[in-house]
Amino acid sequence: MGTSVLDRRSHTPLWAQLHADLLRRVGAGHFDDAFPGELALAAEYQVSRNTVREALRRLRADGLVVAGRGQPPRLGKPTEITQPLGALYSLFASVRALGMDQHSVVRTLDVRADGVVAVRLGLEESTPLLYLERLRLANDEPLAVDRVWLPKSVGAPLLGVDFADTSLYQELDARCGVRLTGGQEQLRAVIPTAAERKQLDIPIGVAAFSIDRLGTADGKPVEWRNTLVRGDRFSVVADFSARAGYQLDVRAGSAKRT
């Protein structure tokens, strides 16, 4: 192990060879108890710390290793919740389907005006909107901050609902007679602010997903939602085939957080 797996005569860079060997060892469970630091890896493989840092940078990008400034690297946890691209899903139902306990801390449930969101819903800027903000937890660990706007004319019956342990879509169907049938969703990787990191207990070095969703019922917009979800607990997957191919709408976006 160590230097024996690195071929200095190869055209493959040393960092890439080291990255591949560390991947193999992670998969074999060699680092389940502890992941070695930069100095230990440099000594074991007899390479420079720059070589080790590049290999670790790639492991961090893969989500396999978490390393903050001034902190030793450690193995990242595999994501617990996986969602398919192009599917209308309920985070509540997804967490429950995995056998995990789902709970929400309701921060706000009220009626307000928001001109920007109203326009996104195809409404006049002054239209009253029902607003629901929740901290979503899975197995009592923070998973996401969820903010939802609905036209008051649609969501008024929800004002008396305790959303600590129920699904918005379930209540929307049962109390308002509205069932979402489609929509559009944009997912972006973001760097959490200090406040968001604290709120979601996000480890240093871990990014988050910001998910904007416009939900529709029979083609009519009825929901605007923004969800900030921990990147180490959530992932998305896509299926493709030789016949249908793979469809992914990549849109350029501003790096500015809103």
Structure description:
There is one protein chain. By secondary structure, the protein is α+β, with helices and mostly antiparallel strands. The protein has eight helices and ten strands. The strands form three sheets. The chain has a six-stranded antiparallel sheet with strand order 4-5-6-9-8-7. A hairpin with a 2-residue loop joins β8 (208-217) and β9. α1 (14-27) crosses α3 (49-61).
Q: How many helical stretches? A: 8
Task: Determine the strand fraction and express it as a percent band.
Answer: 25-35%
Q: Which structural class is indicated by helix and strand composition?
A: alpha+beta
Portion of residues within helices: 25-40%
Question: Could you give the order of the helices and strands?
Answer: HHHEEEHEHEEHHEHEEE
The total strand number stands at 10
For the largest sheet, list the strands in their spatial order: 4-5-6-9-8-7
Q: What is the average of the pLDDT values?
A: 82
